[in-house]
Design brief:
This protein has 336 residues and is mostly helical. It has 2 domains: 137 residues, Ferritin, core subunit, four-helix bundle (Ferritin); 134 residues, Ferritin, CATH 1.20.1260.
Length: 336
């Protein structure tokens, strides 16, 4: 019975976006699997490849049943599997771990926008894929010593309530700022972790891009990610909190492109969108007034970077248009 009910505009939009994201991952996995020598890493990527292929096949079937066009997204022409490694060992798993965070957020949001029972069931099954993949990526990176953990903290011995009126002030007239609480640390560290990976991603993309304007864009993205990491690390160090780091996943010296400029640009804008969402959550949960100001500044820089990327993709005719609502103004114009 559910299939007799047309899908809504919201469902069409989320299915379209899911298809694009999964197609991106599939083409990147074509390259990553080819270059990876670690059996455990290959097993993780093979599981994700098979799962995402099935999910996109389901989306194609739904869209075909609705008489809707299938997105072009990305094809084998967008990946060059013979290109040498662009990053060191385990960058692929670090990248997939961040992408699984993004996918979990997207699927939870898309589930809340679904109404038809088969679409609801589809997104419930979608969520299982990044859950399992994220867990396996985290376990493997920890096993290989390639994943830094957030800072440790002394456990509270009793429950306390906020009594000081200046608790939410980031800047005091006299004395130092109060130390960060663990909720604030969690969100700051999450942004740092994502941008450390983003720095290496943008470095590799900049080396491999074939058009100078695209290269410049990725260099700008690398510098933005470095700035975010530096500024947030300084905030933690002001509370005498050292940020753990790892040397894994660095870009190599290769300049041969494993992916098309179009695909690398889409990946960059997708991660920028994820960053904006993470910044919004971090801002809403911070109780120190200077932190929302800093995170808002980061969000503005990220938005401007993403917006510039969108304009560049439109200029190159690389940005596929999502399904549109009917233009009633155009349809109701007087007929000549």
């Amino acid at each position: 019975m559910a299939k007799d009910i047309p899908i809504t505009s919201s469902e069409l939009g989320t299915l379209w976006m899911t298809y694009q994201k999964n197609a991106l991952l599939l083409r990147m996995l074509d390259y990553f699997v080819e270059k990876e020598n670690d059996k455990d890493a290959k097993d993780i990527m093979s599981f994700l490849y098979t799962s995402n292929t099935k999910l996109n096949d389901e989306i194609e079937q739904i869209l075909n049943n609705e008489g809707a066009a299938i997105p072009i997204a990305f094809t084998s022409n967008d990946v060059h599997k013979d290109a040498p490694p662009l990053w060191d060992n385990y960058f692929d798993i670090m990248f997939l771990r961040v992408m699984m965070k993004l996918s979990l957020g997207f699927y939870a949001l898309h589930l809340g926008m679904a109404y038809r029972s088969d679409i609801v069931d589809f997104y419930k099954r979608c969520i299982d894929v990044p859950k399992k993949t994220y867990d396996r990526c985290t376990h493997l990176l920890q096993k290989k010593g390639a994943l830094a953990r957030p800072p440790y903290v002394s456990m509270p011995k009793e429950v306390q309530f906020i009594e000081q009126k200046d608790y939410m002030k980031g800047i005091k007239l006299f004395g130092n700022k109060r130390s960060l609480n663990t909720v604030e640390i969690a969100h700051i560290y999450n942004v740092i972790e994502s941008n450390v990976m983003g720095t290496q991603l943008m470095t590799g993309f900049a080396q491999a891009a074939t058009e100078s304007e695209v290269t410049d864009y990725f260099i700008e993205g690398k510098e933005l990610a470095k700035k975010i990491v530096s500024n947030l690390t300084q905030i933690m160090q002001d509370s005498d909190i050292q940020t753990p780091g790892t040397g894994a996943g660095r870009a190599t010296d290769s300049t041969a492109p494993p992916f098309s400029d179009k695909m690398m640009m889409f990946c960059s804008t997708l991660l920028s969108s994820f960053g904006l969402g993470a910044n919004a959550i971090g801002t809403s949960l911070s109780l120190r007034s200077d932190l929302p100001m800093k995170i808002t500044e980061i969000a503005m820089d990220t938005y401007q970077f993403a917006s510039k990327g969108g304009k560049l993709m439109i200029k190159r005719n690389w940005l596929e248009e999502p399904p549109q609502m009917e233009d009633r103004n155009m349809l109701t114009k007087p007929k000549k």
